[in-house]
Write a structure and sequence with these properties.
The chain has 103 residues and is mostly helical. The protein contains 2 helices and no strands. It is 83% helix and 0% strand. It is rod-shaped. The N and C termini lie far apart (121 Å). The model has no long low-confidence stretch (mean pLDDT 86).
Length: 103
């Protein structure tokens, strides 16, 4: 357990040293850094809005294509159904065969 406590202390020490080094060697002031971060966040937000718009357009296009395919399949099924029904009716229709005369 003592080893884990020592590791945690060294972790905190390293974290503190890294934070101090980051502040000392920062290429910009705090305000400039915040402005740069804000600009990057706005760029990311705009990028995500564009990607979402493109995804919506793509989904709408796929939905339209799907509706077209379903409509064509429905029409083909309806035509096949009607052809089968008519063929059945023709096959089961009593033929007009003259009856032989009675003698």
């Amino acid at each position: 357990m003592a080893d884990r406590d020592g590791s945690f202390v060294w972790f905190l020490a390293g974290l503190g040293i890294g934070a101090i080094a980051g502040v000392l060697y920062a290429p910009r002031s705090g305000a400039e850094t915040r402005d740069a971060l804000r600009a990057r966040a706005e760029e990311g937000s705009e990028y995500m809005r564009n990607r979402a718009r493109m995804a919506r357009e793509q989904a709408a296009e796929w939905a339209d294509k799907g509706r077209d395919v379903v409509s064509r399949q429905k029409d083909q099924f309806r035509s096949a159904y009607e052809a089968g029904r008519q063929a059945y009716q023709e096959a089961t229709r009593p033929e007009d065969v003259p009856t032989p005369p009675k003698q």
